[in-house]
Structures are given as C-alpha cells and as structure tokens.
Amino acid sequence: METRFGEKSRSVAMAGTKSAGMWSLISEIDHTKTTWALQVRVVRIYEVAAHARGGNTLEMVLHDEEGTRIHAVVKRPQVALFRPQVMEDNVYAMKNFMVLDNYQLYKTTSHLYILEFVSRTRVVHLDKEFPNFMYDLHPFEMLQAQRLLNDKLLIDVIGKVVGRCAPQTHVINNRTERLMELTLEDSDGNRIGCTLWNNYITEFNDYVNHAQNQPIFMIVQLYRAKRYKGTVFTF
C-alpha cells in the first residue's frame, strides 16, 4: 500500500513502437497460453518478504491502454534479473508469463489471474504515448452506499484531510504498531476515515509541518476499505 501527500498525477509523453496487432489487452488474459504480449504501464512495484524461503518477491501492478489492471509477481530466483529492468510509471512491452489464478488474500486488482515472470519473460522499455491510469479512485459516496464492503480488494481514494487524531501505539499480533486516524472529505462533503501506520505517520507529519497551513489533499493507494461503527475506513 502507499500514501502520497500533495502529489499531482503525472502523464509521461512517449513516442513510437510496433503496430498494435501483436499486443493483447489485459482483459483477454487467461490460462490458454504463456506467450501473452502486453504493453503496460507499471503502477506500483514493491518487495514482499518471503520469510519461509528467505529473500523477497518482487510484486507489480500493471495497467494497459484501457486502464485494466493485473498483478504480476517475480519470485526470488528471478528478482535480481528483473528488478533493474522495471520502474514505476514507465511503459514496457512484456512477453511470456506463467498465468496463475489470483491467489492473493488481499488483491491489488479484481482480475481473475496474476502473471508470474519466468526466465524467458522479456521486458523492453517503450518510448511512446500511452494512457496514464496510475490511480483507480473510488468515490466516497459509492463506498458509503455499499452494504457490504469487500475488504479483500485494495482500493485508491483521494480526499482533503479535515481531521486527525494523535498517534497511538498498539500491540497487534505480538508486534508494536503505531497508527493515526485521519478524516478525509471529498468535494461533495462526504467523509471517510483513514488509518496511517508506522512510517506513513512520520511522512504525513513531515508534510504537514512544511505545508504552512495550506489545505492537504491525500491520495491513498492500495488500501483496504471497511465499515466500523457505521463509518467507512481505509487502512
């Protein structure tokens, strides 16, 4: 998950590549082959600790020209090969993946499948015009209207910070965690709660200290949404 403070959305201008006929859309991906060829932008890239085996896996969220997203994973033996090849917000041609059922407990996309990079996966940076859908924003009103929120699907929201509580410390699963509750408001006055954890609290407070009393707008990316005592919270 990620929280970005005061960041404007970016659009990168790029130019020229091969004809579109050889490329598939993410919505077309299924188990039928392993030679899918995609043009995608990297929305997020991060590492996840693989405690049982040692080392980390490399996790990515990708979107195509239609904004459809899919999750991709690079297992530990391939991380050193692919980590230098991909950067967030860049556009790539990618080909040859294992296609797996989406086994994530907390899903970064609603796609039925995820992609696994293997040794024969190919990645080429593209210098071309390509749509930018870095955030898949969910309206507050829509979240509030849902009787049952799917807290297993991670979402993005944007709002103005209109309230915050002092940080607290809790022991969760035998680990000491710091958390801070915020209130976010959209342009129609709808409000939801937002919980910041650990280092994000420091990042937020540092931004507030340099904001010189200006309004603070926050994009919350890949957070869970849940209702608590009638109020929608992202955390």
UniProtKB/TrEMBL annotation:
Residues 25-125 form the Replication protein A 70 kDa DNA-binding subunit B/D first OB fold domain. It holds the Pfam family DUF223. This is Replication protein A 70 kDa DNA-binding subunit B/D first OB fold domain-containing protein. The lineage of its organism: Eukaryota, Viridiplantae, Streptophyta, Embryophyta, Tracheophyta.
